[in-house]
Write a structure and sequence with these properties.
With about 150 residues, this protein is of the alpha/beta class. The protein is about 35% helix and about 15% strand. The protein is built from 5 helices and 4 strands; from the N terminus they run H-H-E-H-E-H-E-H-E. The chain has a 4-stranded parallel sheet with strand order 3-2-1-4, with helices on one face. Helix 2 runs parallel beside helix 3. The protein is globular.
């Protein structure tokens, strides 16, 4: 699965948006291995929580062109980066500025075929977690599990 072109994002963007790193590329590799299974599901709706730069949903949307993608992020700058990445790679994603699936969980309860998330996992002081800036991409609070527990 080709990695989306991120050349439109600048160093200035990465001051405010998580720059794809090893964790992002490992997730892309895992999705590539699962791609035959994901295609066999004939998914109609995929949701990514915390889309960051847009690398994950953009890559997968190019492989699943008949699937509708919703991508959320708490960081407004990340939302703009996600949309720019999709456009730069000739795909379309619906991008929503929200925390996790706030205000969407009831509406989507039985509709999501693929749910993606690369949660913040770095153990930090509780005071560092829960913000709406770039730290939301990595600051996981006590034990690095605020989002996943």
């Amino acid at each position: 699965m080709p990695t989306p072109d991120l050349s439109h994002l600048t160093e200035s963007d990465y001051d405010q948006v998580y720059e794809p790193a090893e964790d992002s590329f490992l997730l892309l590799d895992a999705l590539e291995q699962e791609l035959p299974h994901l295609r066999s599901l004939n998914p109609t709706l995929a949701v990514e929580v915390g889309g960051g730069s847009g690398i994950i949903s953009t890559a997968l949307s190019l492989q699943l062109p008949h699937t509708y993608f919703i991508v959320t992020d708490v960081n407004k700058t990340a939302c703009r980066a996600i949309q720019a990445t999709a456009l730069h790679n000739n795909t379309n994603l619906e991008v929503l500025n929200t925390r996790t699936l706030n205000h969407l969980s009831e509406r989507l309860r039985t509709s999501v075929d693929i749910l993606l998330c690369n949660p913040p996992y770095v153990a930090t002081e509780q005071s560092e977690a829960g913000h709406e800036d770039i730290s939301a991409a990595w600051a996981g609070g006590d034990l690095g599990m605020n989002v996943t527990k």
